[in-house]
Each structure stands twice: as structure tokens, then as C-alpha cells.
Amino acid sequence: xxxxxxxxxxxxxxxxxxxxxxxxxxxxxxxxxxxxxxxxxxxxxxxxxxxxxxxxxxxxxxxxxxxxxxxxxxxxxxxxxxxxxxxxxxxxxxxxxxxxxxxxxxxxxxxxxxxxxxxxxxxxxxxxxxxxxxxxxxxxxxxxxxxxxxxxxxxxxxxxxxxxxxxxxxxxxxxxxxxxxxxxxxxxxxxxxx
Length: 194
What we know:
Helix content: 55-70%
Structural class: alpha/beta
Shape: elongated
Strand content: 15-25%
Largest sheet: 5 strands, mixed
CATH superfamily: Ribonuclease H-like superfamily/Ribonuclease H
Distance between the termini: 64 Å
Order of helices and strands: EEEHEHEHHH
CATH topology: Nucleotidyltransferase, domain 5
Strand order of the largest sheet: 3-2-1-4-5
């Protein structure tokens, strides 16, 4: 599976591409950080991030895009910019028919380091080790984008199995309720004819 991982942001947006192999084997194919100046107009910054995402998807043809889910940050303005950047990337993926999956920072940290509260240095060290890189990816946004892609590669099979199990359970429940309703109708009909 070819996964494009995205650590969204307006000032620095990490984008990476990894490919999964057998078991937990993953290979880094490309990584970069899109930068936009803080004094640039917001619409132009978002357009730069969007253009970069479009270019990456057109060149690398990922099967899925994994984006960090923004759920809370201390600075509201930072969270807004991060969410906006993630939104334009999700839009670019949707326009190309590429599925988008969101992972929380703690899910990514737990998948890569085994600790959902790991710091950036630990994530970077494990990404470097998992991918067998000679040097640690810099800046941290690049390592985070790689970590997101790795996380999705490792979690996707489990997520798919769970979705199939939930769908099968929902189908079984629907069939059970239909049978129960039919039995009740039969009983009412029988009681009415007596």
C-alpha cells in the first residue's frame, strides 16, 4: 500500500510517501516540508499547501492519504491554521478519488513508539529506525509526516477488519430483527384468526 502522510500546518506542512511491504515492513519513498511565510495572505498560504498536495498526489499516486487529526491545541490560531491546511489537502485527495484517513497524534505516537505520549525526539528516533534511514528526517514536521504514513500502514488492516466485523454484525442484527418482526406478525395474525 502506498500512503501519503501529512502533518498539516501553514508555516510548515510535512508531506511524506511510504510503501508497505510484508508484515510491518515500510519503505520511505519521498519526504518534504512545504513552507509558507507567516506574513503571506492566508488564502495564498492555503493555495500553496493545496498546490503542493496536488503535485504530490499527481506525481506519486498514493492509494490513501493519512492526515493528522486536529482535536485541540493550546493556541486557537495555530489549531485553525492546522485544520485549514488539513482541509485543503483532504479536498485535493477527494478531487482525485483518493481516500483520506485521519489519525490523532496519540494514535500515531503509540503506533510508532509504543507510547501515546512520546515526545518529538522519540518519534523522530523511531521513524529513523523503522525506515532504516541514515539520518533523522528534519525538521520534525518531516518525521511526523513519515510517522503518520507508517501509522496508517500498520493500522489500516486492523481498521478494515473492524469495519468488516461491524458491517457483518449490523447485517446479522438487521436479519434477526426482520425475522423477529415476521414472527410477531405471524403471532398477531394467528391470534386475530382465533
